[in-house]
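Many introductory courses stop at the sequence. We go one step further.
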Amino acid sequence: MDIEDAIRHRRTHKVYGGGAISREVLEALINAATWAPNHRYTEPWRFYVVHGADKLAAMDRHVQAAFDASAKDAGEGVGRKLIAKKHKMTARLAATAAVVVVTWTRTPDDQAADREDYAATACAIQNLLLSAHGRGYASLWSTGKMLMQPALLEFYGVPGEATDRPESVAGVIFLGSPTGELTGRRHRTAQAVTTWV
């Protein structure tokens, strides 16, 4: 697949059609991610893979608990919305082939380096998404706070803030077989966002 075609045609996809994805393909996607540019060769990204029906079901139990706790503390209207979101997430996880949680190793004492490392990790995620698209998989880059609750971070195996090298989540990537039409909003043209100096 031509790289510019992949960039233009990849879309966020929230509904999956079941199916599986092999460990070898997941390793290939992560290998593609690690070719992202990164200043000072810090390679700040880390990948936590939730793969297989049992592990995805275990993740769903943690997600349900997080939604239930938040709904309990919220007002009635907000609580109903959270429960509706919970059901959507459960359906998504049931049809997802794998979830890849992408973090970056933090540098709290150097804000410039930390910012560069986050940007590099975002580039790594884009590589992963494009590589998945090139292999025919649909993807979703989520930053929803329900997927980053402390119990879920522990489930993923992400080191806590008290460690020497804390990590933060840059994205939770859902991967699966596409179903339905891949649609997305149109972007503005280069002319609309470019200033020639």
